[in-house]
Amino acid sequence: MAKKENGKPKKTVKDEQLKQFTVDATGQKLTTNQGLRMAEDEFSLKAGERGPTLLEDFHFREKMTHFDHERIPERVVHARGFGAHGYFQVYEPQAEITKAGFLQDPSVKTPVFVRFSTVAGSRGSADTVRDVRGFAVKFYTEEGNYDLVGNNIPVFFIQDAIKFPDFVHAVKPEPHNEVPQAQSAHDTFWDFVTTNTEAAHMVMWAMSDRALPRSFRMMEGFGVNTFRLVNADGVARFVKFHWKPVLGVHSTVWDETQKIAGKDPDFHRRDLWDAIEQGNFPEWELGVQLIEEDEEFNFDFDILDPTKLWPEELVPVRLIGKMTLNRNTDNFFAETEQVAFHPGHVVPGIDFSNDPLLQGRLFSYTDTQLKRVGGPNFHELPINRPVAPVHNNQRDGMARMTINPGQVAYHKNGIAGNDPAPAPESEGGYKHYEEKVEGRKVRARSDSFKDHFGQAAMFYQSLSEVEQLHIIKAFQFELSKVMNKDVRQRTVDVFAQVDPGLAAQLADAIGALPPADTAPPAVTMRSPALSIMNKAKSAQTRKVAVLTAKTFADAELKKVLAPLAAAGVTAELVSTKLGFLPTDADGQVEVMHHLESADSVLFDAVYVAGGRESVDALLAQPLAVDFVRQAYRHYKPIAAIGEGADLLTPAGVGAPTPVGAKATGSVNQPAWNEPGVVVAAAPDEAFAKSFVEAIAAHRHWTRKVQ
Ligand code: HDD
Fold first, then answer.
1. In a domain, 642, yes or no
2. Ligand 1 pocket, 76 CB below 6 A?
3. pLDDT tops 50 at residue 667
4. Catalytic site residues (predicted)?
5. CA dihedral of residues 382, 387, 392, 397 (deg, nearest 10)
6. Last residue of a domain, which of 342, 358, 384?
7. Cα–Cα distance for residue pair 67/70, rounded to 1 Å
8. Please, how many CA atoms are within 13 Å of residue 273, restricted to the half-sphere of its CB?
9. Do the beta carbons of residue 478 and residue 204 sit within 8 Å?
10. Which end of the chain is more exposed for a tag (fewer CB within 10 A), N or C?
C-alpha cells in the first residue's frame, strides 16, 4: 500500500486534461447556462405574488428542463459502481513479450481510471451483496486508451457471447415483478445455471467467499478472456491478465455481508474513498500468464474457453508492474457514470484471441455506450478522452464537441494532402495479428469446451475446509429461496457432478432427494493459489472499534492506540455519546461514532477499553454487549484491557483461561482461551503486538461459534 508523498499526489497528464474541463463555482455569481447572472433563484416569475407562473420565465424553464433530463440509462449490467484515478508503472521493459509502449519504461507513470462494480444490482443497490465484482481499468497511454475490463473472478458463466442476454435476464430481477434486487438467490438464476451447466465452475466461485469482498482494495482482478501479446518482431503469445492486491484478498462472512447492506449500503465505495482521502493509496500488481502459440493444445482444457482458468501452478503469473489509486473523483456522474469501457480499446502489442465470449464482447460495449451515453461522441467526454491526439474523418453526431476545420472529411483525399494519413506500423499504426484462420461457417461449439465440471471440482478441492463450508452454506441459502422444486432437485443433481458431498448436504437442507450415485470428475491437481487463505496478510488500513465511555486511560492511548496507528490500523472510538472523553492525564479523545449508529459489522476488530466506570456504563447498554457478541460470531479479533474483559463474558466470548492452563494472550494477563481474543490486565507492548497480529490474520476460523 502506497502512502501520500509530500502532501498531494503529483498530477498526471490525464489530471491536467481533466482540469481544463473542471469548473469551480467558489466565489462566483450564479448564472444561467447562457452565462447570464441571475438576481433571484428562489421564486419563479409570477403574475402577482399569488398568481400563475409565466411562460417567459426562462430561468425556471431552463432549470426545470435540465433537471427533467438529468438521468441517463443505467448500465444494463454493472450498474452500481465506484471509480478512482491513479497511475500504472511497469517494473521492467516488456519488449520481449509486447511492443505496448506503456509496458516499456519503468520511469513512465501511465494515468489510469478504475471502476469497480457489482453486476446484477441497480445503480442504487447495496455494495455488499453476493455477486461478482467488475474491475475495469482504463489506461490513458501515449498510444491511445487501453481498457482492461475484468472481474474479480477468473472465469465466466457462459462460453459464447450469444448467451449473455439469456444469462443476464436470468440473474436480474425476474421480469414479471422485478424481484429480487441484486440477488442470485431466485428461481430463474438457478434454472439457468442448471440447464446451462457450463456455468458450474463460475457458480462455485460465485458461492465462495470471493463474491463477498471485504473491500475493493482487497480483491484480485482478472482479465478473464484470453488475449494475445505481440512483440515488435510479430511474435505472439496467449495471455491472461491478473491484478494482485498488495493488501491480500479478504472477505466478509455472509451474515455480516447482509447486515452491512442495511447498515451502510455504500460500504465499499466509502471504504475506497476514505482510504484514498487518508493517503492509504491502494495498490495492485499486474500479472501475466503466458502460453506460447505452439503450446496452445498442451493442456487438458481449451485455453480459449472462458469458463476455464489456467492454474498458476501450471502457468506461473509473472508480475510486471503496479497500479496505485491516489485520487478520488471530483464529480461522480461526470467521471464514474460517464466512463465508457470496451475490451476492444487496445494499443499496438495487445490483440485478441478467438475466445468466443471475447469475440462477442468486442461488439457489445460500444453498442451499449451509444444508448447509455447518448450518441457516437462519448469518446469526447473528458473522462473518456485519450491523452493521445485524435485525428480522423469522423464528424457530426449528437453533442459533438471538437471543431474540425477544413473542407475535407474523407479518406483518401487529394485536396487536404491525404491528411490525416494512416500511420505505418513503424510509426505506431495498429496492425492486427495475422492469425491464420480457416473453417466452415457453423453454429457450433468445439468439443474441447465440453468439460463443465473438472475445474469446478478442482476449485472446490483446492480450498480450505472453512472456504468449502462457506460454499455449502451459500448453496443452502440460495436454494432455500428457490421456490420451484424441480429447480432445487436439478441443482442437487447437477452439482453432484462437482462434489457429491456438497450435493448431499444441499439435498438434506432443502428437502430434495439425495443425488444419484454420480462419479465426480477425476481431479488431477489442486491449485493452492485459488484459496484466499494462502494470500498476503496485513493489518494495514484495518478499522478497529474502540468501545469506551466516561473516561479514557492515557496508558491505553500510548500503549495500544499508538502502536495500532504505527501498524497502519485506524482506531475509532464508539461510545454512548458523541463529543470528547477526558483522559486521566488531563487530555481528551474524540468519540467518532454513537453506539446507536455504529455496528461491529462496519469494523474489522473490536477493542474494549478499561476503566471501571467506563465498562459499567457499557455493561448497562445491550447494544455494547451485542457489538462484541456479533464481532465474536463473525470471527473478528477482539481485545480488552482490565475491566474491559468484563464485557466479554456476557457477550459470549468464552472465558478466561483456567488457572494453571497455558495462557495464549499477553504476558501480564489472565489470558482468554479463545482464538483471536487478546486480553491483558494493563496495556503493554506484547498486548499491542498480539492484537495487531490478530487483526492481520483477518478472521479466526477455529473459533467455535454457534
Ligand atoms: Fe461485460 C459492462 C466485465 C462479459 C457486455 N462488463 C462490464 C463491466 C465490466 C465487465 C467490469 C463494467 C464496466 C464499467 O465499469 O463501466 N463482462 C466483463 C467480463 C466478462 C464480461 C470480465 C467476461 C469475460 N460483457 C460480457 C459479455 C457481454 C458483455 C459476454 C456481451 C456480449 N458488459 C457488457 C455490456 C456492459 C458491460 C452490456 C454494460 C455497461 C457497459 O458494458 O459499458 O456491454
1. yes
2. yes
3. no
4. 78, 151
5. -10
6. 384
7. 5
8. 12
9. no
10. C
